[in-house]
Design a protein that fits this description.
The protein has 349 residues and is α/β, with parallel strands linked by helices. The chain is 49% helix and 16% strand. The N and C termini lie close together (5 Å).
């Protein structure tokens, strides 16, 4: 079992953007000292209230300079929004400058503001993802290659630099819909999911699709097949942990609402999801969230929850999102991380 942390880095209080990044770097340094294995960095665009992490591949070498061991992942690089040749170059450079510590998490994305901003049709996201991933893998494994697809043409190019890791950095695909679980199962690639987008009841159904498609395509279940992210808080007692996270969970959904509300009504595609988010903000079923999405408790409770998830889903990595919604004091975040390292990690390793 490996242990990761997820960082989204939204704006918070009166802190400058530079201060928010600096705090994340310090928490990653602490995480390395505590024995965490991977720091995962989101890619999100056009809304600081939701996230300041627009270019995680640029952040990877900075984290690497401040650490020695911890691996640094993208969760996830949004392939439909990038030219695949540029993405292959940037990710290879990040791997090179981090000493071969890049975990290349990729996904197709589904937040409409990002596609609206880059003027990429949301309906093309799966086809663009597949094509971009094909090109990136060829760029990393062939001396020269050509590719002629629906969106991109490559004619006899050699892409440099080459990543340190061979044949390339580990690739993990972010998934949260039944269609994505099935599609990536067909491809046989390791996956990353999160209970914020795929609560446990839905995850059970989606994992059945993934396993069925994985087996039907002749792919074996690998030792690094499944990583799962949970909003996480470890406190002295279960009630204390859940009450500490209540403001942050509410803030998170208000932030999501703010992002979706920025789109003009003429865009149209986002309106059904916006209405659902607005209803969640008005009437958040927090107890249901704690049952199906968040893991908030004392050390023993968190161990029980994660052991059950590990056994049910075949997890190779648990990723903790400490301070969802960015409402906890810094000292409380660090206490939760230390409790997790001292009381939880030894029982799951």
């Amino acid at each position: 079992m490996r242990f990761g942390l997820f960082f989204q880095i939204p704006e918070s209080g009166g802190d400058s953007h530079a201060q928010r990044y600096a705090e994340a770097f310090e928490l990653i340094e602490l995480a390395e000292a505590l024995g965490f294995d991977v720091a995962w960095l989101a890619e999100l665009h056009f809304g600081g209230v939701f996230s300041l992490l627009a270019s995680p591949l640029m952040v990877v070498p900075v984290v690497a300079q401040r650490t020695r061991r911890i691996r640094i992942g993208t969760a996830v690089t949004l392939l439909p929004l990038h030219h695949p040749l540029s993405c292959a170059e940037q990710a290879a450079t990040a791997d090179l400058l981090s000493g071969g510590r890049l975990e290349f998490g990729v996904g197709r994305g589904s937040i409409p503001t990002q596609f609206h901003g880059f003027r990429v049709p949301l309906a093309d996201n799966r086809a663009r993802f597949d094509e971009a991933l094909d090109i990136i893998r060829l760029a990393w494994t062939q001396e020269r290659f050509s590719y002629h697809g629906r969106f991109h043409d490559v004619d006899n190019l050699a892409v440099v630099p080459r990543p340190i890791q061979r044949p390339h950095p580990p690739i993990r695909v972010g998934v949260h819909t039944p269609e994505s679980f099935a599609h990536i199962g067909d491809l046989g690639l390791p996956i990353y999911s999160g209970t914020t987008t795929t609560p446990l009841p839905q995850l059970r159904e989606c994992m059945a699709y993934y396993r069925a498609h994985l087996a039907a395509a002749g792919h074996a279940w690998g030792p690094e097949q499944m990583a799962l992210m949970f909003p996480m808080h470890v406190a002295a007692s279960g009630p204390a942990a859940r009450e500490a996270m209540r403001p942050g969970v509410h803030q998170y959904y208000r932030n999501v609402q703010a992002i979706f509300a920025q789109l003009p009504d003429s865009f149209g595609e986002h309106l059904p999801r916006l209405r659902m988010i607005e209803e969640t903000v008005r009437n958040l079923p927090y107890e249901t969230f704690c049952r199906d999405q968040g893991v908030f408790g004392d050390g023993a409770e968190v161990v029980d929850r994660l052991q059950a998830a590990r056994d049910e889903f075949g997890l190779s990595q648990v990723i903790a999102w400490f301070d969802q919604g960015a409402r906890l004091p810094r000292a409380e975040i660090e206490r939760a991380m230390r409790r997790f390292a001292d009381e939880v990690m030894p029982k799951l390793a």
